[in-house]
Every structure is written in structure tokens, then in C-alpha cells.
Design a protein that fits this description.
The complex is a heterodimer of chains A (114) and B (115). Chain A has 114 residues and is an all-beta fold. Chain A contains no helices and eleven strands. In chain A, the strands form two sheets. In chain A, strands 2, 4, 5, 6, 9, 10 and 11 form a seven-stranded mixed β-sheet that branches. A four-stranded antiparallel β-sheet of chain A has the order 1-3-8-7, with no helix packed on it. Chain B is built from no helices and eleven strands. The termini of chain B are far apart. Classes of the chains: A mainly beta (114), B mainly beta (115).
Chain lengths: 114, 115
């Protein structure tokens, strides 16, 4: 158990819909990262938040957005869903206090768009 | 740009040694990470190299050569439970100091351990 929690575990929805994925980082970690993993794309970095502020952006679509709240939990919002958005979405957290700053991954949310 | 290359798949026998190579090319390098991922599960951190040389952690060792943009993960005394994907990831420091690394992952190397 990494200490990072994600809800829900599974999500099945239809094209055009909007969903929200939630992540709670490890206690004391200031950075939260979101990744998308699909079969043909591998693990892709989407976005990073540090202490409530956006810090780095990857290949995140405009239909996707995220935020980190004062209690440091984070939400990833996916809208106008398409079949190709079906994937595993991982959240990770790190202390961001220097050093290796390894990221600890949550169990993921498996999103299926029908 | 950033490009991480590692082999797609490797097969080895229980008790043997396997070496997974990884090459990268980027700027703003802040460490090379290795993660293990079993199918359908979260990646788990294995090792980190930021300076050249070998880091040993039990049965797993990782090596880095920054001048060559090259790393490898060495798995010794392979066990059946080592069958998994191994992800090489390059860390690039976010633009504000001490604000974490943006990780770029390779496609992963699927290792199959046979009895």
C-alpha cells in the first residue's frame, strides 16, 4: 500500500459524458501528479500540482482539467468523453522536498467509455 | 524533445540474471528512475540514479551513464514473481526548485520469467 488513495476504482460511462476522478496523496506529500495509461500509449504524464498550484503540464487534452485543493487532495475532470479516453488513470504523490523525490502511485481508476 | 527507449519484451529463466537497457535524451535531467508494474496494478518505485555508477539494492541494481544517456536495471536470482513490466523514467525538474520532477516514462519492458 503506497498511501495514495484513488476513487472510484472503476468507472463506466458513455461518450459525451463528464467524470471526476479523485486522489488523496500520502500524508505530508505536497505534489500530486496525474498519469494516463492506455494499452497503446504506455504511461503518459498529464499534469502536476504542487501545494495547490499547477507546476508542470504534459500531454493533457483541453477537455481535461485538474485542481488541487487546500487539503492537498486533487481531482481530475474529464469531459466530452470519447472512446479513446478509456484507460487507467493513475495519481501519484511525492514530498517535493529535494532528493530523489520518488513518486508513489495510487491503485488507479479504470475508466471505460462505451 | 524527450525520448526514452527500452526493449519491449525479455524472457529469462528462474534463477538467472536479466539486464534491461534504457536510453534517453533530454535537457533538464534530474535523475533516472526504475519502476516495476504488474499487470493492472500501480507502478512501484525500484531505484533512482542521478550520478554515474551502480546503485545496488538487494537483487536489483541500476546503473547510469549521463554522458551516454544510458541506464540499465539488473535483476539477479530471478523469481517467478519478478514477471512484470519494468518502466524506465527520466525525471526533469519542474521549473521551480524543490517542486518535484516531471517523469517521462518509456514504454516498459515486459519480463517473463520461466521455470
Amino acid at each position: 500500500d503506497s498511501g495514495v488513495t484513488q476513487t472510484p476504482k472503476h468507472l463506466i460511462t458513455a461518450t459525451g459524458q463528464r467524470v471526476t476522478l479523485r486522489c488523496s496523496p500520502r500524508s505530508g506529500d505536497l505534489s500530486v501528479y496525474w498519469y494516463q495509461q492506455s494499452l497503446d500509449q504506455g504511461l503518459q504524464f498529464l499534469i502536476q500540482y504542487y501545494n495547490g498550484e499547477e507546476r508542470a503540464k504534459g500531454n493533457i487534452l483541453e477537455r481535461f482539467s485538474a485542481q488541487q485543493f487546500p487539503d492537498l487532495h486533487s481531482e481530475l475532470n474529464l469531459s466530452s468523453l470519447e472512446l479513446g479516453d478509456s484507460a487507467l488513470y493513475f495519481c501519484a504523490s511525492s514530498a517535493s522536498q529535494g532528493g530523489p523525490d520518488e513518486q508513489f502511485f495510487g491503485p488507479g481508476t479504470r475508466l471505460t467509455v462505451l | 524533445g524527450q525520448n526514452i527507449d527500452q526493449p519491449t519484451e525479455m524472457t529469462a529463466t528462474e534463477g538467472a540474471i536479466v539486464q534491461i537497457n534504457c536510453t534517453y535524451q533530454t535537457s533538464g535531467f534530474n535523475g533516472l528512475f526504475w519502476y516495476q508494474q504488474h499487470a493492472g496494478e500501480a507502478p512501484t518505485f525500484l531505484s533512482y540514479n542521478v550520478l554515474d555508477g551502480l546503485e545496488e539494492k538487494g537483487r536489483f541494481s541500476s546503473f547510469l551513464s549521463r554522458s551516454k544517456g544510458y541506464s540499465y536495471l539488473l535483476l539477479k536470482e530471478l523469481q517467478m514473481k519478478d514477471s512484470a513490466s519494468y518502466l524506465c523514467a527520466e525525471g526533469v525538474r519542474a521549473y521551480i526548485k524543490a517542486a518535484g520532477n516531471k517523469l517521462t516514462f518509456g514504454g516498459g519492458t515486459r519480463v517473463l520469467v520461466k521455470p
